[in-house]
Amino acid sequence: KGELRIQSLTFEDAGMYQCIAENTHGVIYANAELKIVASPPTFELNPMKKKILAAKGGRVIIECKPKAAPKPKFSWSKGTELLVNGSRIRIWDDGSLEIINITKLDEGRYTCFAENNRGKANSTGVLEMTEATRITLAPLNVDVTVGENATMQCIASHDPTLDLTFIWSLNGFVIDFEKEHEHYERNVMV
To answer: What does the mean pLDDT of the chain come to?
Structure first.
């Protein structure tokens, strides 16, 4: 195929590479520069979120995306406790931390540590649990005669510290109440 593969790159491999293809009709050349990137982990451009919200009984993924070359190894702690993969906690290959079945005990300071052969860095965020949003009154099936009006209700309970938005859709397409104001009407009761 004309491929050149270089394994276990070093800084000495950096430079201009040239591929020459020739046959009885002539010769053509193509050039490319190979740059070797190496840097210790840094969170300057992409720090961890300072506040992470997770719903009670739900699932959260806390991202850890430092800039680093080569790819760093990741570890996590909650406070001073080092975290390991278990039934509810998983550290992904990309450094993200997943927690399922969130409880009040999961609240706290989470720190992601990233380390490669160039150095190490860490970033910290605080996980807070919120009450899960639940639909307490779901819309019911309605039979209506053509030309009449139909009313459907939806009521939900939610964490009082968060805002709640209701989105209605028809056959999988979100209803735009501003464009469809002559056909649909939304009444919000507090």
So the answer is: 92
